[in-house]
Write a structure and sequence with these properties.
181 residues, alpha+beta, 5 strands
Length: 181
């Protein structure tokens, strides 16, 4: 199963960024970042936002757009209120499911119990985390960080959850329970 929406081109992302963050908001593109990519290469990005790094950037060595695993601001020009800290993951606001959130949805996911032949199954919580990460960051499945295991397994199991309507129930439950108070 493929994603139904095509990825945005760099020009489309710039146009969307201009619409969402007009020049009147004074976003200065002046920060320099060291980013670790999903291909294990490290790139230095100059002239980017002081607050965030895009979720995907071109890898000069691979000549392919890759996902960002970790971003560290390396310039000296931190602004007021900006402590220059590391940004882990593709989006600084992404967090894995908490134990409480997992307790809300674990009954939804039907897993096979008992012994079986072959490799041990990937824990379904890891699959749900991987799918949420992919959904929230917009990266391709192939760019899923290694901490989530095999991207092929995550994709296959996510497609199974979608086909059985479990994914809709998971996302609906999380959205309903995570509403701000």
């Amino acid at each position: 199963m493929r994603d139904s929406t095509p990825p945005l081109s760099p020009a489309q992302r710039d146009e969307l960024r201009q619409l969402l963050y007009p020049p009147s908001l004074h976003i200065h593109r002046s920060a320099t970042w060291r980013v670790e990519l999903t291909c294990q290469h490290v790139e230095t990005l100059a002239g980017h936002s002081p607050r965030y790094v895009e979720s995907t950037v071109p890898c000069d060595e691979c000549a392919v757009i890759r996902g960002v695993v970790k971003a560290v601001r390396i310039d000296d020009q931190t602004e007021d209120g900006d402590d220059g800290r590391d940004i882990e993951g593709l989006q600084s606001d992404y967090q894995r499911l908490t134990d409480e959130q997992w307790s809300w949805i674990k009954h939804i996911v039907h897993t096979e119990e008992g012994s079986r032949r072959g490799r041990p199954r990937t824990y379904v919580r890891t699959i749900v985390d991987a799918a949420l990460y992919k959904t929230r960051t917009g990266i391709p499945w192939r760019e899923l960080p290694a901490e989530f295991g095999s991207w092929q397994t995550a994709l296959r199991r996510h497609n199974q959850l979608v086909a059985s309507s479990q994914w809709d129930e998971i996302t609906r439950t999380l959205a309903e329970r995570d509403l701000p108070q």
